[in-house]
Specification:
By secondary structure, the protein is mainly alpha-helical. The protein has one domain. It is built from six helices and three strands. The protein has a three-stranded antiparallel beta sheet with strand order 1-3-2. A hairpin with a 6-residue loop joins strand 2 and strand 3. Helix 4 packs antiparallel against helix 5. The longest helix has 23 residues. The mean pLDDT is 78.
Length: 146
Amino acid sequence: MSFFEPQDIPAGMFKEWWVRRSAKGSRSGSGEESEDEVDDLFEDDIILLGSCNLISAAGTGAGGAFLMHALVQLSIRRWIETRGIQGQYREGFYLFLLSAVQTLEKHTRSRPLAIKLLPHIDRVVKLPTEASNEAALRATLLSEAG
């Protein structure tokens, strides 16, 4: 969540990000949780983050969103930087946003949802790039987002 714009993170988009990130470190060890198990694990994590006041929810269902306090986000980003893994997180987020934009264009033509992506795209493209592949991903993302 450290690369999302802290306000108005679409719930569906955040869940997709969470599913992709957690699939790399499956809790069951098999990596093959059912959709209900994934939903339960996601909900458990959201409840934990909310009970610690790290995030809050705004709205419900498809129109729901999450809010993250900017200081929490800054702390997470600094933690990532001190471990020297910010490049891989930034690259993963570029790829995720690119996939989200392409999916919206192919399947939904949903202008309101596409507009909700713009603050997140704007935020990530303002980050400094450290590798040529990040610059190429940034250019592709900007081109696809229009």
